[in-house]
Amino acid sequence: MATCWQGLWAYRFYLIVFFLPIFLLPLPILVPTKEACCAYTIILMALLWCTEALPLAVTAFLPVIMFPMMGIMTASTVSLEYLKDTNILFIGGMMVALAVETWNLHKRIALRVLLIIGVRPALLILGFMLVTAFLSMWISNTATTAMMLPIAHAVLEQLHKMPTDRDVEEGRHNPAFELQEQKEETKLDEKDNKQDCPALPTPSESKTQQNKEQLRFSQGLSLCVCYSASIGGIATLTGTTPNLVLQGQVNSIFPRNGNVVNFASWFGFAFPAMIILLLLSWVWLQILFLGFDFRKNFGLGEQSKNQERAAFEVIRREHKLLGPINFAEKAVTFLFVLLVVLWFTREPGFFTGWGNLAFSDENGKSMTSDGTVAILIAVIMFIVPSKIPGLTQKPGNPGKLKAPPALLTWDIVKKKMPWNIVILLGGGFALAKGSEESGLSKWLGDKLTPLESVPPAAIAFIICLLIAVFTECTSNVATTTLFLPILASMSQAICIHPLYVMLPCTLASSLAFMLPVATPPNAIAFSFGGLRVTDMARAGFMLNIIGVLVITLAINSWSIPMFDLHSFPSWAQSNTTGLCGVSQANVTTSSP
Length: 592
Prior knowledge:
- The chain is mainly alpha-helical.
- The protein has helices spanning 2-10, 12-24, 26-30, 34-51, 56-60, 62-69, 75-80, 85-102, 105-117, 121-136, 141-161, 165-170, 183-194, 203-232, 241-253, 263-290, 294-297, 305-321, 327-346, 354-358, 370-383, 410-416, 419-438, 440-447, 456-470, 476-494, 498-508, 520-527, 533-555, 559-563, 570-573, 584-590, and strands spanning 393-394, 397-401.
- The protein is globular and about 75 Å long.
């Protein structure tokens, strides 16, 4: 019997892929409408994405098969959804990020900031969080975590190995890195102090206590890196894929939205939320792993300089190994800064951007997009040489000249570009288009009309909680891909601004802090050892609550004037059958 269960478990993915479509077949058979057929496809893809019985990108191809065969859309129409402007923005942004990684520019930035901030416990955690969050705004959070964690553990190794046995025996250890004891241990000490002749701790007990403190600090530093990688990604449109899913879904479902979600508008909304969440996370991790003695955490008391000097030396040595900044790093830095400036000034909204001035259509709107800018800079990187142009001889062959490689080569792109994300984005856009064409969006919106009596602020808060729980066990891209079209339909049905519910959903999908499998940065931190699932769950649970509260604050404060969330927009009203003008007053008064 045990062998039978083991066999079923071993072949579980094959069984899921085979039986799941059959199990769901009664839906399109008993209800032979386009809406039911589209719902069948969406439910099937959602379950396959949740179980990961098929690779996520392979599941994303199902609309190409299902929609034409079910009479929802033609194959050519479905295929057009797989390479839209949002996909181009992702590809261009990733190419620039790969160039930054190739020339170790991200590592130089990280080490330089750490040298400035210092290595005292609280400041060390803050330094790693700031650097990781900043890098994650521009490059993959997985790559950022994979780079920062080895640096963090190298610093910790120096901090922990410096005290000699003689120092431990004599009680001379660094209070700056001595973590506070747990409450139970404190109570035990108080009992001991009440005795007439308290026993002094033996050297072995002191060393055991010190090892526990070092382990807790190591856990805190590992978690601060992986958490800040996820937090930093929400600040920019290209920082994490769910942000791009939002932009693509808004442009697909509401084609006349006037480019309401672009790089500048997203940054203005998400960057303050990221800073608040990052600082609150720092305070929470410091309390959880360092204790409440902030004077000791900041190293303000008496301390030995040996450990601090050793840890600082590790960072300085790593920085020195990078050598002086070369031409390639300078060129990549210039092009990267140019990219960010062009993104911000293309169509900022509060002044006329260069896109409106130089490349406008008959209505004065910019014909270029953020994707245009990203691809332009990426193409330039394929052209600019990595060394100052000159005649250099090929190594080992003095008589033959060789040109230096470009800042970015196709071999690097071919090896490191996550093409599966491009396909996954396209699958989400195909689902949204299929829902609209089949009438499923309208049907779903009609069914959600009773929610009109619920205050919008309560709806947004519930959505944040739901997505924060759902994203712990499902890909954040799949989560936003599934929920955003539903929320768009709901917003039209109850006449509230679509972004009022879609923005919280997108931000909450990045709140995957509790489980190692929730996101790649968590898995990388867990693989370094020293962490248990309970450690991550205990720290992540509170961060999820903090994240939901910060998102609720953002959506009910500075985002309202930015996106005009107090009224139902005309570009969303054009897709509905009824008018929402009557409900605008209700929306205004219900929203904080």
